[in-house]
């Protein structure tokens, strides 16, 4: 059974850095684009796109809100996805989810194209 497991979340202060990891198992994801989404735990808040990377790791795409601060990367040999988060802000506080597309090798911001999801890891940034 395919599974994605995030780790690396926590409580940090504004300006600090965190590195999230997502370990994949149960199948190979090396031929699929992968991404990170986040969701604020409040009524009416939808899951929002953060970053995506294509199957080989040669192309990345970021939400404007994190561009220049976050870096997505992947190690297909380890079946692992990463999100390096620098200069964190209180507005980055959310549950962060790792995801893999169902069949696409190219990057996409469309949440509906992601068929595999992790359970999420909480990131809290205090001011």
SSE succession: EEEEEEEEEEE
Tell me the number of helical segments per DSSP (H or I, 4 or more residues long): 0
Task: Note the main sheet.
Answer: 7 strands, mixed
Structural class: mainly beta
Shape: globular
Rg (CA only): 14 Å
Give the end-to-end Cα distance, rounded to a whole number of Å: 40 Å
Number of strands: 11
Proportion of strand residues: over 45%
Task: Give the low-confidence spans.
Answer: none
Structure description:
By secondary structure, the chain is mainly beta. 0% of the residues lie in helices and 49% in strands. Strands 2, 4, 5, 6, 9, 10 and 11 form a seven-stranded mixed sheet that branches. It has a four-stranded antiparallel sheet with strand order 1-3-8-7, with no helix packed on it. β4 and β5 (48-53) form a beta hairpin. The radius of gyration is 14 Å and the shape is globular.
Which tags fit this structure?
127 residues, 7-stranded mixed beta sheet, 4-stranded antiparallel beta sheet
List the helices and strands and how they pair.
Blueprint: E1 3-7, E2 10-13, E3 18-25, E4 34-39, E5 48-53, E6 60-62, E7 70-75, E8 80-85, E9 94-101, E10 114-117, E11 121-126
Parallel strand pairs: 2-11
Antiparallel strand pairs: 1-3, 3-8, 4-5, 4-9, 5-6, 7-8, 9-10, 9-11
